[in-house]
């Protein structure tokens, strides 16, 4: 798992997840920010949505602190693969579900090098990944969905959540966080819209649903168009 010494453009959205940041991630992002800035509470909305589509053969992309899996790993015989660009995220999330003996894959979703091989999954989650990626929604979502769609098993579902850009009309706290995170390259979501997300999903999947809770788009898709 060698890392280039100079971060590439797409690594900026991953580089911030140091051990220190991951220690406060659940409290700051999943607790305070989801409740007060993004208006999409973790306990009432995001965790139930994550659990609803979780299968016993799951791929989690953009794992962060591993919170969702750590709160869902009660399924008997659960198999899980974690994919992330950041070694810290992989290690921290992996250790939270170590009893599941997860497979860890370090890969940039925007520049896939085929690390998943021919693996197929019954569910693939992308929670709070797309808004971390640079570029416009159409381009980044196209790259992500085209590299993940072939890994969805027949009958499988790809699902996730992403913070929308300025069209979501953020509150005072949301505007401050959006400005700071976009300036630092932690987010790349200023112009992300629900319509662009739906469009990108529909380019790759037959059945697509996307809706908004607070400032967050939730989506699910199945039956990849190949
Ligand atoms: C905001 S965290 C989301 C964590 C978790 N899914 C959640 O919802 O709480 C974003 C995660 O995506 C990873 N990430 C960012 N850019 C990436 C890329 N280009 N390829 C793969 N992973 C990336 C980061 O390292 C981080 O672990």
Which labels suit this protein?
binds S-adenosylmethionine, 226 residues, alpha/beta, 38% helix, 8 helices, Rossmann fold, seven-stranded mixed sheet
Task: Break the fold down into its secondary structure elements and pairings.
Blueprint: H1 12-15, H2 19-37, H3 42-53, E1 57-61, H4 67-70, E2 79-84, H5 87-96, E3 103-106, E4 121-127, H6 137-148, E5 152-163, H7 172-184, H8 194-204, E6 205-213, E7 216-224
Parallel strand pairs: 1-2, 1-4, 2-3, 4-5
Antiparallel strand pairs: 5-7, 6-7
Helix pairs in contact: 6-8
This protein binds S-adenosylmethionine.
Residues 10, 13-14, 17, 30, 62-64, 67, 84-86, 89, 108-110, 127-129, 132-133 line the site of S-adenosylmethionine (SAM).
How would you describe this structure to a colleague?
- By secondary structure, this protein is of the alpha/beta class.
- It has one domain (14-224): Vaccinia Virus protein VP39 (Rossmann fold, 3-Layer(aba) Sandwich).
- It contains 8 helices and 7 strands, in the order αααβαβαββαβααββ.
- Helix 6 runs parallel beside helix 8 (194-204).
- The longest helix is centred in the first third of the chain and has 19 residues, at 19-37.
- It is globular.
- Residues 1-7 have low confidence and may be disordered.
- S-adenosylmethionine (SAM) binds at residues 10, 13-14, 17, 30, 62-64, 67, 84-86, 89, 108-110, 127-129, 132-133.
């Amino acid at each position: 798992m060698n890392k280039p010494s100079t971060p590439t453009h797409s690594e900026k959205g991953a580089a911030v997840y140091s051990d220190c940041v991951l220690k406060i991630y659940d409290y700051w992002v999943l607790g305070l920010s989801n409740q007060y800035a993004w208006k999409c509470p973790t306990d009432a909305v995001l965790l139930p949505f994550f659990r609803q589509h979780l299968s016993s053969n799951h791929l989690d992309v953009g794992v962060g602190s591993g919170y969702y899996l750590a709160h869902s790993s009660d399924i008997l015989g659960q198999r899980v693969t974690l994919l992330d660009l950041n070694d810290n995220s992989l290690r921290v999330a992996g250790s939270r579900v170590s009893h599941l003996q997860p497979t860890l894959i370090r890969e940039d979703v925007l520049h896939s090098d085929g690390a998943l091989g021919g693996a197929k999954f019954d569910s693939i989650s992308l929670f709070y990944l797309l808004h971390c990626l640079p570029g416009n929604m159409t381009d980044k979502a196209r790259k992500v969905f085209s590299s993940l769609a072939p890994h969805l098993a027949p009958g499988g579902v790809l699902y996730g959540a992403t913070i929308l850009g300025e069209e979501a009309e953020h509150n005072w706290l949301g505007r401050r966080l959006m400005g700071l995170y976009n300036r630092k390259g932690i987010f790349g979501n200023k112009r992300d819209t629900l319509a662009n997300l739906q469009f990108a999903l529909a380019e790759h999947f037959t059945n697509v649903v996307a809706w908004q809770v607070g400032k967050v788009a939730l989506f699910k898709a199945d039956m990849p168009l190949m």
